[in-house]
């Protein structure tokens, strides 16, 4: 029936043409490509950490604490417990990326679903959904994340859960506003005049035109998520010692800021590089998605 | 839909409906008031009387032009006709079947299609032309390859080479080409009636003429019926068999195009036609144009809605609402006290033929 034949238009028919065009344009953007390379390097580093890392991330020696960058055998120095910084930074990518990407990824689907439903149906459904979402906006995101993971208890899973909840409202808000705008455009009216069901219209005419802005916004949130996750770990609510995680490392090394400032700043530099890469990639994606460019 | 699509040949209008002795489309007392929401809890603060009890018939194969100033309810009427918005009251009768009684919205939309003014906004920027046209038939149960074949066929029909245009996106086409695609999309349903809501208003004059000729050709070929909405009086005159003049959500005058343009009865129609620039310098417009804007449709004036701007307004005009009244020429009606005998208007003929 109509829905079966409709899959073809959405999948085999048109979208591949559009998305391959987006990828082609993205490929021509040197900044976005560089950011993508950095992110890929981070991911590879996380996946193959045991193979790359020169030492054991958990083993330290009290005799060689806080060595500076460039010490023989410890290219990036050692931390406050004498563990190899390079090793811990490599291992740290695992948890940090997990904490940064997963909440945004889940919130992207949940938030989009809420926002598109509210935006397309409008009226009372919109009011109920969006006012509920607004309740979460009453709290600053950092405070909300802290409160939620504080209530749920420390731990990686609870940290992920609280971050996911923090990111659903802003994504839902964006999804609702772009969907409301698209719904009023005449091609949606024309589709309604063709007798198509709401679900079909959303799938063919709305989704393709709203998912771009939502996706770009969500990728921008990855950097925020990285920093919030680091913040939770810093406060002892996310990852617990001795696990290597950039935010936690930043926390434990802060006492050494006067002794070895460069070593203490390294986890922060990793967070910065990763988050700015995600930001630049989402910028590139935004311009690549613009059909008229 | 589970309609046997194999039996339905593309473009054929030979879908045998119930025998239509009367008009193809009959509109009776159609009304749409938009509530004005405001305040903290969204209480209603009055209504915008966008369309206020209009009635008209459309015969099979004719073109009915609808003219009027911005905000007079032309577009709302168009949207009511395809049920994009539902009327508050009044009935839409298509081929003898009443919408909501024995005619479903789905059936109505298959037989009455619409072309919008903004050719760019009416096309999904992410769909190729061929997919945009094929969408309608597909949601109505046609297989994809058949729908695509139909779409390419229709592209050729509206004068666009399918080999060049089928795979293009809306931004790769000019305004006139896009409007041709929009017409093709409307035709994909094999509709009986096409509502053209300012369909050529946004086009260049030369392109406009091409699209108008295309519309005329398609009408002759496919036996279509048009409802042609425009603010351009020349275009309406060229396209229409009959013309309806709307003012503030009501019908001011309706009649055959020649009668209405030659002897407009309603002072509003007269003012509209007088405002039309004349091509002949010897017949320059002498009358002063209509002053001011139409009154607010939230709070329309009592009596005749036009009396606030009417040069011939009389005492009765601000009290009694005039009804559509037949004029000497067949099918020509106007709602003006001036033409209603015995209405009390000083210019009207007194009621003479009182039945004994």
C-alpha geometry of chain B: globular
Task: Give me the CATH superfamily of chain A.
Answer: MetI-like
CATH superfamily of one domain in chain B: P-loop containing nucleotide triphosphate hydrolases
Counting structural domains of chain A, the number is 1
Could you say what the CATH architecture of chain A is? Orthogonal Bundle
CATH class of chain A: Mainly Alpha
**Coarse shape of chain A:** elongated
Any overview of this molecule?
The complex is a heterodimer of chains A (293) and B (356). Chain A is mostly helical and 293 residues long. Chain A has twelve helices and no strands. Chain A has helices at residues 2-13, 15-27, 30-47, 49-52, 85-121, 123-137, 141-152, 156-183, 186-193, 198-234, 246-252, 261-289. The relative contact order of chain A is 0.16. Chain A is elongated. In chain A, α2 (15-27) packs across α12 (261-289) and α3 (30-47) packs across α12. Chain A has a single domain (2-55, 74-289), classed as MetI-like (MetI-like fold, Orthogonal Bundle), CATH 1.10.3720.10. Chain B is of the alpha/beta class and 356 residues long. Chain B has a domain at 24-34 and 47-244: P-loop containing nucleotide triphosphate hydrolases (Rossmann fold, 3-Layer(aba) Sandwich), CATH 3.40.50.300. Chain B has helices at 74-81, 105-111, 129-139, 144-157, 162-165, 175-187, 205-222, 233-239, 257-262, 267-274; strands spanning 25-38, 43-58, 63-67, 89-94, 97-98, 112-115, 193-197, 225-229, 242-247, 250-256, 325-326, 333-334. In chain B, the strands form two sheets. An eight-stranded mixed sheet of chain B has the order 6-7-8-3-9-10-12-11, sandwiched between helices. Chain B has a four-stranded antiparallel sheet with strand order 2-1-4-5. In chain B, α3 crosses α4 and α4 packs across α6. The longest helix of chain B is centred in the middle third of the chain and has 18 residues, at 205-222. The A-B interface holds A 1-2, 5-6, 8-9, 13-15, 17-18, 185-187, 189-197, 200, 204-205, 208-209, 291-292 and B 1-2, 79, 82, 84, 105-106, 109-110, 113-114, 116, 118, 121-128, 131-132, 134-136, 138-144, 147, 169, 171, 182, 185, 189.
